[in-house]
Write a structure and sequence with these properties.
single chain, mainly alpha, 13 helices
């Protein structure tokens, strides 16, 4: 029952990130990396205050939980900035296939440090899912080594690995405390870091003006991103972090299916293979985990 609930919740994260990734790319190009992160984290901080004002003070009685959550927030801040920068500098078709690297990063840490075990069949399905997601995400005609020299690639690799580290810490922190408190700490620390950076660079006034003028876009992005992170944190408390991360990354599938149905986009042969592999792996992984 609990596993089935976790699968349902992680599907919410998957759908929300499918929308959020598109909006994040538009936001970073319109207002900048730090401004986008500030809008997302600031919104999450304000919205969650009514739900955590009693639990946050209890964190100081448990330094372990507080330490994990602070570490998660700091790592996620760096990972988010790198990811935003990769989206701004590189082509989505080149950067997007690299994002699934956060799945093995989070999975290895969860296994090594938390003893988070998955079955051999789940491991095989996760590996197939990663391969499928990489194939379907790559929108060029031919996958060649020259693509690794494209702008934003190495930034995206660093961002993805760090994002996997942050995913693991968030899952650990959510288990030690609770998902809402974990997300609140995440948001408030990222908000403070962004404000300090913008003040130090003398960009506060411009940031406020940019955020105000793009408030519609940023609000949609902030809502979808915060819903995704909350759902993801909840899912990691009831199912293995490797499974939750793998399924949440399947938001790429949603984006591709939307492109096919709404924009009549055409897929290359390797994308069709990747879509079939990713869909089949995600469905099978969800089914056997919830069973």
């Amino acid at each position: 029952m609990f596993a089935g609930t976790g699968i349902a919740i992680v599907c919410i994260a998957m759908l929300s990130w499918g929308i959020g990734d598109f909006l994040i790319q538009k936001s970073t190009r319109k207002v900048g990396d730090w401004e986008t992160l500030l809008a997302t984290a600031g919104f999450g901080t304000v919205i969650l205050i009514p739900f955590v004002w009693r639990t946050v003070p209890l964190l100081f009685a448990d330094p372990k939980g507080l330490f994990i959550l602070v570490g998660s927030a700091l790592v996620l801040t760096v990972a988010a900035i790198l990811t935003f920068e990769a989206l701004k500098e590189g082509k989505l078709a080149i950067v997007e296939p690299i994002w699934p690297l956060e799945i093995p990063a989070a999975s290895i840490l969860a296994f090594a440090l938390l003893g988070d075990k998955i079955t051999t069949f789940q491991l095989v399905l996760i590996v197939l899912l990663i391969i499928g997601l990489m194939l379907v995400s790559f929108r060029g005609k031919v996958l060649a080594w020259k693509h690794f020299a494209e702008k934003g690639v190495y930034i995206a690799v660093a961002g993805s690995v760090l994002m996997g580290f942050a995913d693991f810490l968030l899952g650990w922190g959510s288990r030690v405390t609770d998902p809402v408190t974990a997300n609140f700490v995440l948001n408030i620390i990222m908000t403070v870091v962004c404000l300090v950076f913008l003040v130090a660079r003398g960009r506060t006034g411009q940031a406020v003006r940019d955020i105000y003028h793009s408030r519609g876009l940023l609000l949609m992005m902030a809502v979808s991103d915060n819903v995704a992170w909350l759902a993801y944190a909840y899912a990691m408390t009831v199912i293995p972090i490797a499974v939750a991360t793998g399924l949440s990354e399947s938001s790429v599938i949603i984006a591709v299916l939307l492109g096919l149905s709404m924009n009549h986009e055409k897929l290359e042969k390797h994308q069709k293979v990747g879509l079939v592999v990713a869909l089949a792996s995600a469905v099978a992984l969800a089914f056997i985990t919830s069973a």
